[in-house]
Amino acid sequence: MTIEVIGAGFGRTGTSSLKAALVRLGFERCHHMHELLSEPAQARQWMAAYRGERVDWRALLRGYRATTDWPSCTFYRELTREFPDAKVVLTVRDPDRWYDSVSETIFPLSVNMPRWFAVVARGMGAISAVAQQNIWGGTFSGRFRDRAHARAVFVAHIEEVQRTVPPERLLVFDVKQGWEPLCAFLEVPVPDEPFPRLNERAKLRRVARFLKVLSFAGPLALALVAALVLRALLS
Predict the structure, then answer these.
(1) Whole-angstrom distance between the N-terminal and C-terminal Cα of the chain?
(2) Positive or negative, the Cα torsion across 220, 225, 228, 234?
(3) Crossing angle of helices 219-234/201-217, nearest 10°?
(4) CB 99 within 8 A of CB 147
(5) Across-strand partners of 90?
(6) Burial per residue of 104-123, b for 16 or more beta-carbon CB atoms within 10 angstroms, e otherwise
(7) Strand partners, 171
(8) What does R_g of the chain's alpha carbons equal in angstroms?
(9) Does pLDDT of 184 surpass 90?
(10) In this predicted model, what pLDDT tens digit does every residue of 134-160 receive, in sequence order?
(11) Which of 118, 30, 112, 41 shows the shortest CA–CA distance to 69?
(12) What are the chain's domains?
């Protein structure tokens, strides 16, 4: 098994929908930031890659047939070299709508995560660590709150991918386009069902607000959570 599809688009450009679509088309498993929830040990390797250390991409992505979302989109150049037969899908979105979505969801979710919660929930801690180093501190140079800067980085990434990846190997894709362009590009039949629409914005906003409350509550919240877990175990 090897990587056949490389997702080069930033998070919040429909990457969860693309993942679901690729799995439906037979490209299972598909790597997404969510994978760190169940495999938090991966975080060390992704962070090492950002520091410029050598990474065995085939070992890291063993068992996957596709990638999408952060952190893998940051390394689309390395992945296209490592997997020369893989096709590249660049998910795109209106830059202002993209910024609004990220600033309301995954950005506050990761920056507001209390340290103690990251220790208790190792998967969430892994995602937060990768986001802090690779995305907010790396890709956006610690300036994501500067809308103009973040927007410029987003647009520059899209333009860079289009310059870097040969046209015959690249699909610039808005998930609103549905199955047809994706299936034509991957040379697979079009499923007789709606294209996946996984808009997690409302859920992620609720989680971000919850973590913000926990960041103020600190040890008291941890004690409460522990008490609730113990109660559930004893009931």
Answers:
(1) 45
(2) negative
(3) 110
(4) yes
(5) 172
(6) bbbbbbbbbbbebbbeebeb
(7) 89
(8) 18
(9) yes
(10) 999 999 999 999 999 999 999 999 999
(11) 30
(12) 5-234 (3.40.50.300)
Place of tokens 């520059």: 156
Tokens 């927007």 correspond to: 151
* pLDDT at residue 227 is higher than 50: no
Q: Which two tokens stand for residue 59?
A: 């070992």
Q: Which pair of structure tokens corresponds to residue 211?
A: 């973590």
Beta bridge partners of 91: 173
Phi, psi angle pair for 84, to nearest 5°: -65, -20
Residue 209's pLDDT is 55
Rounded to whole angstroms, the Cα distance separating 234 from 130 reads 35
The alpha carbon of residue 7 and the mean position of all alpha carbons in its chain are separated, in whole angstroms, by: 10
- List CB contacts of 92: < 8 A, sequence separation 6 or more: 9, 13, 158, 172, 173, 174
Q: What are phi and psi of 104, to 5 degrees?
A: -100, -10
Tokens of 79: 């992945």
More confident residue, 210 or 172: 172
- Report the C-alpha gap between 98 and 82 in whole angstroms: 29
Q: Please, are residues 155 and 139 in contact by the beta-carbon 8 Å criterion?
A: no
Q: Is 134 helix (H, G, I), strand (E, B) or coil?
A: helix
Q: How far apart are CA 219 and CA 186, in angstroms?
A: 50
Distance CA(203)–CA(208), nearest Å, equals 9
Distance CA 158, CA 98 (A): 13
Q: Who contacts 212 (Cβ-Cβ below 8 Å, separation ≥6)?
A: 108, 112
Distance in angstroms (rounded) separating the CA atoms of residues 64 and 162? 24
Task: Fill in the DSSP letter of residue 29.
Answer: S
